Amino acid sequence: MKERTGTTGLVFNEPLLWEMGRTGRSGMSPPPRDVEPAEVCEELQGKGPDFPDLSEPEVVRHYTRLSQWNFGVDSGMYPLGSCTMKYNPKTNERQAARKGFASAHPLLPDELSQGALRLMAELERCLAQITGMDAGTLQPAAGAQGELTGMLIIHRWFENRDDRRTKIIVPDTAHGTNPASAALCGFRALAARSGPHGILLPETIEELMDDETAGVMVTNPNTLGLFEENMEEISRIVHERGGLVYCDGANMNALMGLVDMASTGIDILHLNLHKTFSTPHGGGGPGSGPVMVRKELEPFLPVPRVVEDESGALRLSENHPLSIGKVHTFYGNFGVMVKALSYILSMGPNLKRASELAVLNANYIKELLKDTYHLPYDRTCMHECVFTDALQQSYGVTTLDISKRLMDYGFHPPTIYFPLVVKGALMIEPTETESKETIDTFIESMRSIAREAREEPDLLLNAPHYCKTERLDETGAARKPCLAG
Amino acid sequence: MRYLPHTEGDVAEMLETLGISDMEDLFEVIPASCRRSTDLDLPRPMSEWELDHFMENLSARNTIDHDCLLFLGAGRYNHFIPETIGAVLGRSEFSTSYTPYQPEISQGTLQALYEYQTLMTRLTGMEVANASLYDGASALAEALLMAVRVTKRKKIVLSTAVHPAYRKVAATYLKPTGCEVVELPFLPSGRTDLSPLDEVAEPAVLALQSPNFFGCLEDLSRAAGLVHESGGLLAATFTEPLAFGLYRAPGVDGADIVCGEGQSLGIPVSFGGPGLGIFATLEKHVRAMPGRLVGKTRDRSGRRGFVLTLATREQHIRRERATSNICTNSSLCALASVMYLASLGGTGFRDLARLNYDKAEYLKRGLAGAGWEIPFSAPTFNEFVTAIPGDGEEVYRRLKEKNILAGVPLKRWYPDLSEHYLLCVTETTSRDRMDMLVSEVRS
After folding, report:
1. Considering only alpha carbons, which residue of chain B is nearest residue A265?
2. B 129-148 residues with CB below 8 A of A?
3. What is the CATH number of domain B69-82+345-442?
4. Helix B48-59 crosses helix A114-131 at what angle (to 10 degrees)?
5. What are the phi and psi torsion angles at A24 (to 5°)?
6. How confident is the model at residue B188 (pLDDT cuts 50, 70, 90)?
């Protein structure tokens, strides 16, 4: 291949914060004191925390150097499966940082926060349009909290009908958070096996679904990157037995403008604004996990809800007696909502094109790597494709080694060892914002790594070679946890 | 569209590689009945210039501190944020990365989170802190669920002086668990009445907020003694961590779990979110703790490095037996807070806390002098309750007409506290502004 993208550059060693500084330094100038000191209750007074004192240049250099040890979407392709690491537009950041948004207090009277309420109403409307669902809430702070909200809605729905259900079906191709979210609502997760082609078969659901089962929690497209073709039939079976269908929509990036999610028969759907709608993931959050529902479930959504009165003014309404309650201190991660709406307004109906290209990129990678890496399910995929290390194992290298070596080539590794249904999984999600040239370089790099696995396996076993650190001892870290300095 | 790099030529080449002629062929697997028959009904794409105008207009329809004298706190605080936070936090190596699953190329996020965890233990007086939860309310809910796991008991005692939204979120999380919630009333001092605790058999946890929703400091050491006697845990929550620059940290007073909101530490108010869920506990409870943890370790050459650790507690490994379902948390806000605390330093943090306190006392005295009642006698931090004598609602309304919002009305959550308002003062509330309010009240 032509020159590798990854190379070394000068990065710096940097101490921990409290190994730096001198008492008495300051990196900030708060507003001046303009009042006299008042008396303080001595009995309650403390010494204050032991934080290091640093100057402004020290703080800036410290965190700049730390940032250089990191890899983001802006650094390079980040094909982390099921995480939709697409480009995060810069204008979105500018919009969220506007003083009128960033400084808006959540307890302002409704008439003084019409801009924020209008933004939320508009985003809800757009998400309903994109998914085909009837109504929604923006309150959940992340995908897993969206799942929890969905499960609470299901719990409340049955409680309201005096129908006690204790189980919920979760297929082996669902997202990892699903069983834990269900368990928080007291549902026991019933594992459903996907069929021979990686998708769920109606007969599996037929067998598991009874009148003690609340329904099913499907991820569509699933974590194998496959569209659940039998959703309509599965939904029919679940509904017939009084259950509800929850869909994890974290992989919605494959389907915008292409699929009407409501027509797959689902009742509840969560979205991840930090995946599909381009808001940055921030090294682990904050995210936002709106939950969309069918009309019948609208009364159960969390409060407060944004409602419009006859004059066109918006207000926050608490008066929804069937509501599950509240999952966030205020109304959810508003700052993230601003970014997501900025993206939707910038894209408009082109969202469909984004999904098409995301699917095209994934299929292109699948096609060009399937002779090099074992492909357990050889069929048209959606936004991601899943390979394994089966062909490389005989050289003594594994999925972990392949992914560590990929760093040396300048790429973030894919999601590895997930989904569990595939042994040694390499789950690759390129997203639509990677160009054909980048994708070609990625493919070439993966092929080159497969060659190295055969000819020079040590290169993989000792990878990464060009990062700030070599492979880290994760076992030792867990055995003797050192969680604070 | 500028975010999509593919030319028509690229697409044609890629389709050819796939042996298909039409993009539509990729979607053949989707049953026709599930396909959208019409285009998305969204406005035509806005140019960046149009988007700027649209958002400028929308944001201008919110009233901010600049347009109006706002004395609003109640869980979100308007503190000064230095420019350095935005500049360093905006480094896209931090902001555009995912959860650091691959530690060798995520050392920046990991070391910063390790620093955050450390500073949080020092702030709260606890032994371990996690890498953040969503916000203060869900942190409290998680603390209660954790206490139930640790004690294997199902009775939760919750003060009514805890932020009403926190109580509502806790109730929402607890509803399906069948746990019983006992609420404690508050005393004329503004502190929680701990005496009903005697009658609660086998409590899993007592949850107090300090400073509480009324701004009043609770007697945490007494509360810890009482609940420990009956074998339960003390969960201390907070909405204003700056208070620990002046008052003793909850850990010092014997709390078993300290959890709350970190928005005050360098994160904009942003209409209530994103926030930062701070969560800390004792080492002996670490395996029952929710959320991600960063640990220190070594690489193959013995160099210091950091990794996500103790993942066996988490949802992706333990599935339905996990300590929580949380995955994405509030990492970037945690980074903002550690950068903010690094900028302030220990000295600056104590000074700033004292300034907030002194200013709030200044306004308290001023309003009392102007005839407003200060009903609660317990020491407060940067918030306090006033009762407006006479027709309080009318006075509040008249002030609002003059562009002064004299705090948050409490009647909505506490029907007995009609005509009562919760006022907040921070370092950004100048003496002039406080004087303006007082002189309006006098007139």
Report:
1. B34
2. 129, 131-132, 134-138, 145
3. 3.90.1150.10
4. 130
5. 105, -15
6. very high
